[in-house]
Amino acid sequence: MTSIEQCAVYARVSSDRQNPLSPSDQVRKCREYADANELTVLVEHVYMDEGISGVGSDRPAFQRLLNIALSPGRPFDTILVDDTSRLSRNQAQVMIVIEKLKFAGIRVIFISQGIDTQSEQSDVQVTFHGLVDSLYVKELAKKTHRGLESCAISGLHTGGRCYGYTAVAVGDRESKRLVINESEAAVVRRIFEMFASSVSLKKIAKILNSECVPAPRSKSKNRGTWCPTAIRAMLKREL
Question: Is 0.85 topped by the overall pTM?
C-alpha cells in the first residue's frame, strides 16, 4: 500500500447552493488542512461535482473517486472532505460508503467537523452529523413543496415545460404564468381530433413526423421526433 500521506479530495455543491462554500473553496480548505498535517494532496485526484444534489450517489466525480479508492492499485489511502453533507445527505448512504472505505483501508477526514474515521468516536460523530444532514433535506423538501403549492393556488407556474404553453414572467419577481402558445395549441387540438377519430397513437406520430411538425423539446440543430408514448401522455394530461 502507498503512504497514508497521499490524499484525494472530494468536493460538491448543489445547484441551489445549499453549502456556502464553492467546490474550489472546499478544496482550498482541504489543502490547507493537508499542509498543516503533513499530508500530500494528489493534484490528479481532486474530485468535484457541481450543481448535483447529495441525496443520490449517481454523481460522476463521486463514482470515479469510489472506483479508484476501492481498487487494489489506488495511489492514495486518505480522502479529505469539507464536511459529511458534501459526501452525501443520505444518512444510510454515508454510513455504507464510509464502511466500504474503512474496510478497504481508506481513511476519511471531514475537515470542518473534525471527524477522522481512524478515531474510535468517528462512528458516533458521523451518525449524528449524517442525521442532521438527512433532516435538512427533508425540511428543504417540505419548504419547496409549500412554495410550489402556493404558486399553484395563485395560478402561477410551478416549473417545467408543457407543450402548448409558454411560461411568461409575472411582475418583477421570478414568478411565471402559463399562457397558451397558439402555434403549439393548434398541434395539440389536432392530436386530440385525430385520436377522437380513432387514429392510433403510432399513426399520429408518423403523420406529425412526416410533416416535420416540431416536437416537444426539439432543438433547432437536432429536431426531436414525435413518439406514441409522448402523445399518450399529452392526451392524458389534464393541463
Answer: no
Q: Which residue matches cell numbers 470542518?
A: 112
CB 149 within 8 A of CB 171: no
Runs of H (alpha helix) within the chain: 23-36, 60-69, 84-87, 91-103, 122-153, 182-196, 201-210, 228-236
Whole-angstrom distance, CA of residue 116 vs CA of residue 119: 6
Residue type, 100: K
* C-alpha grid cell, residue 225: 421526433
Provide Rg for the chain, Cα atoms.
Answer: 25
Confidence of residue 155 (pLDDT cuts 50, 70, 90): low
Residues in the chain: 239
- The yes/no answer on whether domain 6-138 falls in CATH 3.40.50.1390 is yes
d(CA 223, CA 221): 6
So what's the pLDDT on residue 23?
86
Average pLDDT on 132-145 reads 59
pLDDT for the residue 2: 46
Nearest to 61 by CA among 23, 103, 25, 112: 23
State the distance between the two ends of the chain, measured CA to CA, in whole angstroms: 60
Question: Residue 216: is its pLDDT beyond 70?
Answer: yes
Domain range summary for the chain, segments of one domain joined by +: 6-138, 182-236
**Strands of the 115-116 sheet, one edge to the other:** 40-50, 6-13, 78-81, 107-110, 115-116
- Assess contact for 163 and 216: CB atoms under 8 A: yes
Residue 46: closest CA among 6, 5, 93, 99: 6
**Phi and psi (nearest 5°) for 36?**
-75, -15
